Amino acid sequence: MSERSTLITSIRPEINSIPSDDIESEIHFQNKILRPVLKFQNDLLIQVLKYYFFKHKNTFYTFSLEKRLSYIENAVQKDVKFRNALKGMIIGQFSVEEYALYQKNASKLNKRMMQMLIQRYHSQIQLFENP
Prior knowledge:
This protein is mainly alpha-helical. The chain is built from 7 helices and no strands. α4 (65-78) packs across α5. The radius of gyration is 16 Å and the shape is elongated. 11% of the residues are buried.
């Protein structure tokens, strides 16, 4: 393991998860890599979404709770530039070895990654009150 890989994995938070015997499974990747990376990047990801609202004239703040949740989901799923920026922030925290695992199932893992991010945003909706 390279120095970068050792350093990048050492700064991530520990997350208790269900162990998986299959080291290359999507579930293993989700629990051992994606969850800690998302938790580590949480503050940045929150600020990025707030800036997204600002760039789109803060219309988000005029919506009801249900509409806000839908707006977040649509932003992450349908705005390709925004989604790619989010993916880059997450993938940039992978070690070289983790990236090699990611490449094997990138499409499925991207979907899983974006769903996890949407759930994270939804669970922290109170952070997105009027600025």
